[in-house]
Amino acid sequence: MKDNSIHKDLLEKGFSKLCTAKAMTEEYEANFKEVSKYVHATSRGHEVIQIAVGMQLLPQDYAFPYYRDDAMLLAFGMTPYELMLQVLAKKEDPFSGGRTYYCHPSLKDEDKPKIPHQSSATGMQTIPATGVAMGMQYKELVDSKSASKLFNTLDENRPITVCSLGDASVTEGEIAEAFQMAALKQLPILYLVQDNGWDISATFEETRAQDAFEYARGFKGLEAISIDGTDFEECFNAIQSVIETIRKERRPFLIHAKVPLLNHHTSGVRMEWYRDDLEEARSRDPYPKMKQLLVENGFSKQEINDIEVSVIETVKKDLKKALKAEDPKPEDLFTHDFAPTLITEEVGERTPKNADKVLMVDCALFAIEELMEKHKECLLYGQDVGGRLGGVFREAATLAEKFGDHRVFNTAIQEAFIVGSTVGMSAVGLKPIVEVQFADYIWPGLNQLFTEVSRSCYLSNGKWPVSMILRVPIGAYGSGGPYHSSSVESVVANIRGIKIAYPSNGADLKGLMKAAYYDPNPVVILEHKGLYWSKVPGTKGATSVEPAEDYILPFGKAWVLQEIWKQEEEETVSIIAYGMGVHWAMNASEELGMQDRIEVVDLRTLHPLDYKTVFNSVKKCGKCLVVTEEPSENSFSRALQGRIQEECFNYLDAPVMLIGSENMPAIPLNSTLEQTMIPSTKKVKEKINFLINY
What we know:
The protein is an alpha/beta fold. It contains 26 helices and 21 strands. The protein has a seven-stranded mixed sheet, with helices on both faces. Helix 1 runs antiparallel to helix 13 (about 285-295) and helix 15 runs parallel beside helix 21 (about 505-520). About 55% of the residues are buried.
């Protein structure tokens, strides 16, 4: 190495990046009052391993840095000024436009590794990163030519994914889910674990039974190595060997790099408050070690000094410039919550002539089948959706047989991975449709849905919208009991940045499924399992003529299913409902013989919500009843009730009323108790009579 001029150039470049990262840390400390308006962390002590990785990644690679990886970003080609724009939350911050923390990059530059958005939640980027690797594998399997074109590379430089994380985060359960899938599927990914022995103020001994290297060895098929993360030569050579292997053999690795933490945990948690190992940590400083390496490779003290002086000058200049940069304007808040969609109008044939009536579950099945036939980037995966079962509700029956196990496949019981992997799949140009078996099981996936999926477009300034569909069977049906009957729409509706459908019939489900597929944003489709086969009395209306293949129903278009005219002499009611509530409303109206006095509005989608149609109906009728299956307190429907009251107050002849399930912790197994808890046609009739006579 010492006599190789190419390596000498690499050493010079690596040292320059190390100097830059160190100088930035010192400049931030020297200007602490101005710089620490917002919380930041730095790479001090970790620089060498980060630079060794950053210098060897290619533009076709994907990287998921963690919050201490500023040296890695410098090695990618980012400038101190660009990073400072983020630490100061400036308008021209190239990653997020001032929306998120320092070293939380989102990058889509042609000449640099691609960095999808990832949150600050500890270690949570591991699942989206593994999703990228899974997407790479699929593209290579299905169409190697297409994959080469996508990643702009030849086979010998096939892309890899790098996921960087701290050792303390490896204790997170979601990281185990990622490791499990990477090992099982043999994905082209490198997990880089930087171990400084600390978890904020807790030590290794307090929080970990083993280090990341020891932990990774428990995953068969995940090869792990441990290195000195302060030795540039060892780091560079180890990284080079591992990356070359992953590019060729397409299998996962974990590198465990021991490093010292030489600065604060973050600017808000200062090292002098709790650290008792500072002297020992400083003895392992990679900076003097690398200076010595340069001397051993023929650099003069003057050459080294010139690099240091030049870097410090640049950093000081860049900070002065960044401090003067423009802040975001108030109106900048309201951009990039969603990527624009072209699906704004209903198109295609909803009721083709001579078409058969089909069950709601089959409308969903046929929609996905048509999409998969037309788009090879469409995949379906989740628990038990594979060929043996085709979903617990047979909602994916025959799909694996028709399209292959590589496109329709089972996952482990790991909802977080199912949901979060879609971030990575979407980032490489795929359109995943994923399932959780029951709404009750969505809870482990909510962290990924909230922190990664929903925020990606907004916090990346529109660079990385997540295009995915999450199917969720929902609602009480057939004594499913407390673990198979929940309604979760209020929780999901509280996650901004996702679209939500809740159809009441098969035709709507098929049309909304098509709209969801062509929408560049994340979509959750809540599918009431009691409507799947219309076995519940009074739900025959969920069975519909199957729409044509070209039928698309846009989000945010409510349907006045039963329309009445404005009446001056009769009391009239507008019922606002969705899902099963639509059938209770229609049945109650019919049994009361009030079809000419009751207007029924089917929301179809909960976000976006068609407020215009809702308000017009309420203003026309003068009275309003909201029908939901959810327990009513603190719910989506309660919020809708309040919004209607606020917007239509001058037109109301009675308070806006609501009927939902009883406010109990869970739906009991016993059928009598179940029916006591949830609404019914009878209960809705009673509420209508009360409201009519108010």
